[in-house]
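ok so heres the complex, two chains, lmk if somethin looks off
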Amino acid sequence: MLKLQSINKYYNPGTVNEMCLFKDFSLDIDEGEFVSVVGSNGSGKTSMLNIICGSIPVDGGSININGKDITNIPEYRRLRSMGRVYQNPAMGTCPGMTILENMSLADNKGKSFNLRLGTNKRRIDYYRESLKTLNLGLEDKLDVPVGSLSGGQRQALAMLMATMTPIEFLILDEHTAALDPKTAELIMELTGMIVREKKLTTIMVTHNLRYAVEYGDRLLMMHQGEIVIDKKGEQKKGLKVEDLLDKFNEISIECGN
Amino acid sequence: MEVIIGILEEGLVYAIMALGVYITYRILDFPDLSVDGTFPLGSAIAAVLIVKGINPLLTLPIAFLAGGLSGILTGLIHVRLKVRDLLSGIIMMTALYSLNLRIAGSANLPIFSKSSIFDNPLLNRIIPDYFRPYLVLAILLIIAAIMKLILDIYLKTRSGYLLRAVGDNDTLVTSLAKDKGTVKIVGLAIANAYVALAGSIYAQMSGFFEVSTGTGTVVIGLASVIIGTNLFKRMPLRATTSVIIGSILYKACVAAAISFGMEARDLKLITSILFLLILVVSHDRKRRVKANA
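and the predicted structre for the whole thing:
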């Protein structure tokens, strides 16, 4: 499915601040896998997602999806078959447009944005039904601008919008980090439900070790641009939060903290 | 009465231009200064074509297209050559000044005696004399209404949705697998097409092309947009309607200033002082926060 092959990535190349993040970094993700990724700040989690999506270029190596080399394909074209939910709930929706308009935008992904009406009236019932699954009462607020919703409501909407059209790949970039614990729980449950239902290949970056252990069928821990833990299947099921904490401590001691 | 009609006429011509500025400033969040060049571009094209004997009505779509082309160039400079938004507009504005002189052949080109969309044999035959004083106003009202309706409808299409999205949160546009740069170029094209159309009508109304008429256009446009959208924020009015009313109100303010003893040569001074006042009163000084917050 996804294959990162000997990726090199430098920040500030040619200056005194040059920093090598990835050196010969490789990763294989199988079709239908739900991978959770943990790691301290600066370990390269978000950079990895940005490299996969094409938000930042690589300095070497290749990115393949289903055998197709996408290393030089611009971000917006890669995202045709990917959905991405960001840490900031404001990134996944348009604040000045209504819920209905946002849903319509998401529904038109992959189609041509021509001079047809932006909102297809026959789809409104479908939008209402899918909003109802969120249990946030958004189905009665179709004409409310998204900017006046709470962060949790917006993130739930962003989640729905990112997975509305058929995608092959879902990218979750600390998507519960900006939410209160209760809302975060709700969004995680929603995530689990959508991923199961649509059988999406998913990468989820999170700082919440419990989510990383509870959700997904593979777990990666990253440190300084390298994968230090990679467990899947039965091994992953046996993993506990404590094990991850131990590893974190071990790494920190190595770093001299 | 005559004064009021004058204000309405000027207000409506500039309203069409302000609709264009509304697209760039409010929807795209792009401070497009090239408007100062595209307005006289429309005037120059209309004047030259009319002198050449082309049907005045035809000058409108031609000016519209020329404005669109100019908008595309501003967009290309910004998006493809990665020049900052403000600077892209300034580059186009400066280039257009010379281009407008080239098109018109001189700094001013009178078309008083020629036929125009307001004064042509056909109209003279069918319009009764008592309606004559209101003729210009009526025609402007029709054009402004049509242009407003077209914009309203466009903003409800898929393409229009995308345009609104790119100013609101361009990350989402990328997520929708669309190139945000292209969307911006489309927006700039439509906006400048509106501005040039207004310029072509303005030349026909005033009876001449004058290369300096463009100076300060963007300020008038911004003032109209800000007055309109702030004053009627809480009213159930469409933003496009508010912009048109804003433009008329703005022209009324200028007329009032002149009637209080300011002279015509003080016009640009009045324009900028009024604009400053509007900015301060409406708290629109800061650029809108891009953080989608």
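quick notes: Chain A is about 35% helix and 25% strand. thats all i got rn
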